[in-house]
Fold:
Amino acid sequence: MPANFSDSFGIRLRRAYLALHRRANAELRRQFDVTADQFVVLSLLRERDGVSQQQLAGRCYSDPSTMGALVRLMEERGWVWREPDPSDGRARTVRLTSAGRELQSRLWEAAATSFHRDLWSVLDSGAEQRTVYDALDRVVAAMEGGPEGSAK
Structure:
C-alpha cells in the first residue's frame, strides 16, 4: 500500500479512466455532438442489438435510471428505438435505427484515428495489451466478488 492515497492503484485507475473519458467526450462532441456515453451505448448495441434496457445498463456498467434517460435522449435523436420486451411487458427492448448504425460506424472510424490510437500507442505490443486487459478483468472480478460487489 502506498504511503499517499494519490499514489494508489485506485486513484491511478480513476485518473486514467477520466482522462480517456474527457478526451473522448471532447472529440466526439466537437465532431459529432455525441457524448462518450452515447458512443458506448451505440457500440454495444452494434455488437448485440435488441437487448433490454436493463441488460444494456449492465453491459455499460451503468445504473438503470441513468440508462433510461440516456436511451430516451438517443431515441429523440433518432439513433435508437424502443419496443415492449416480448418476454416481459414492463421491460423495453432497445434497437439501433439505421441512422444510429451509420453514426456508430462514423464514430468508430473517428475514434480509431484519434483517442483509441493514442490510447493503444502507450502499449508496446499485443502481449502487453493482453496483460493490461487481463489485469483489468482481475480487478473487476476482485471488486465484484467482495461482500458489496456480490449484490450487483
Observations:
- Residues 94 and 110 are 24 Å apart (CA to CA).
- The mean pLDDT is 91.
